């Protein structure tokens, strides 16, 4: 039996991961702002579901809940940092509050959670730390600038941290889904574009949920399989749309960089003072 700790379990992939883990006979420590939202699962699975209220923007609460979970459950095999939110709109049009809230939840919250869970995993001799990222950690679309800023930040943080904590037997996995039809999109704030952006790239409507080809259940199942495998990958790119978009973007980015090879090496030379 695998023991999981999953944040953001009220809806979307967090809820789906919790349901699938419990259904396969595992034990789940689930955190969310309103634990009563999982009353149905508690009635069905009893003490295999451990619940606690937790807001990832509250570092003291993160520390307290993690301490309780590890003390009461013993070893936790897989920790999934899933909590997040979205605000979609032209970068200029977002309010300071919207920007601060998204960074605090998606980026700072993920970093603070990871910093506080690593000592527990190290003390028990290892484990798997899964961070929900996105195809948006590699590519960028209009109206998603701040969301992309948080996901690109998460990617850099975890790639560096993975190297630091590997000697402790802790594996990290960045999950990078494509467009999965979850309640995340319904819950996201949408900011109407201001006059200068009307008719431009920022004014394009988002993809309707009904046009998304990925499935929430299939995506969650792939995460569970990878996280419980002997060698979890550093990055798990999921869904066909993400595979096509990310690989084509990276190929173009590499081609652009290779075209700048001579310029890059020329910058190593000392620039003559006579030309300054």
Features:
two-stranded parallel sheet, globular, 276 residues, alpha/beta, 7-stranded parallel sheet, Rossmann fold
Structure in words:
The protein is an alpha/beta fold and 276 residues long. The protein has a single domain (3-240), classed as Rossmann fold (3-Layer(aba) Sandwich), CATH 3.40.50.720. The chain has helices at 12-23, 39-45, 59-73, 96-123, 145-165, 183-187, 216-227, 240-258, 261-266; strands at 3-6, 27-32, 49-53, 78-81, 87-88, 127-132, 170-176, 189-190, 235-237. It has a seven-stranded parallel beta sheet with strand order 3-2-1-4-6-7-9, sandwiched between helices. A two-stranded parallel ribbon has the order 5-8. The protein is globular and about 75 Å long. The model has no long low-confidence stretch (mean pLDDT 93).
Secondary structure tally, helices: 9
Task: Give the topology string: H per helix, E per strand.
Answer: EHEHEHEEHEHEHEHEHH
Largest sheet report: 7 strands, parallel
Q: Structural class of the helix and strand makeup?
A: alpha/beta
Counting DSSP E segments of at least 2 residues, the number of strands comes to 9
pLDDT averaged over residues: 93
Principal-axes shape call: globular
Give the percentage of residues in beta strands: 5-15%
**What is the count of structural domains?**
1
Q: Looking at this structure, what is the CATH superfamily? A: NAD(P)-binding Rossmann-like Domain
Which CATH class applies here?
Alpha Beta
Low-confidence stretches: none
Estimate the helix proportion, in percent: 40-55%
**CATH topology type:** Rossmann fold
CATH architecture: 3-Layer(aba) Sandwich
Strand order of the largest sheet: 3-2-1-4-6-7-9
Protein name: NAD(P)-dependent dehydrogenase (Short-subunit alcohol dehydrogenase family)
Organism: Catenuloplanes atrovinosus
GO molecular function, one term: oxidoreductase activity
Keywords: Oxidoreductase
């Amino acid at each position: 039996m695998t023991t999981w700790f999953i944040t953001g379990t009220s809806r979307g992939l967090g809820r789906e991961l919790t349901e699938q883990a419990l259904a396969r006979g595992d034990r789940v420590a689930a955190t969310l702002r309103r634990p009563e939202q999982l009353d149905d699962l508690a009635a069905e699975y009893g003490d295999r579901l451990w619940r606690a209220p937790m807001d990832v923007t509250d570092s003291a609460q993160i520390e307290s809940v993690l301490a309780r979970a590890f003390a009461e459950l013993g070893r936790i095999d897989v920790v999934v940092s899933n909590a997040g939110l979205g605000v979609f709109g032209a970068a200029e049009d977002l309010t300071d509050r919207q920007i601060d809230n998204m960074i605090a939840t998606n980026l700072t919250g993920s970093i603070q959670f990871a910093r506080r869970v690593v000592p527990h995993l190290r003390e028990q001799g290892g484990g798997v730390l899964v961070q929900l990222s996105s195809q948006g950690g590699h590519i960028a679309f209009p109206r998603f600038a701040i969301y992309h800023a948080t996901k690109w930040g998460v990617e850099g943080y975890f790639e560096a941290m993975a190297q630091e904590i590997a000697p402790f037997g802790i594996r990290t996995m960045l999950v990078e889904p494509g467009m999965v039809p979850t309640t995340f999109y319904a819950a996201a704030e949408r900011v109407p574009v201001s006059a200068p952006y009307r008719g431009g790239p920022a004014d394009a409507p988002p993809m309707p949920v009904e046009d998304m080809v990925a499935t929430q259940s299939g995506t969650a199942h792939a995460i569970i399989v990878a996280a419980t495998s002997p060698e979890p990958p550093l990055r798990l790119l999921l869904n066909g749309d993400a595979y096509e978009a990310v690989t084509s973007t990276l190929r173009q980015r590499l081609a652009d960089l290779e075209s700048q090879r001579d310029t890059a090496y020329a910058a190593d030379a000392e620039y003559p003072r006579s030309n300054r």
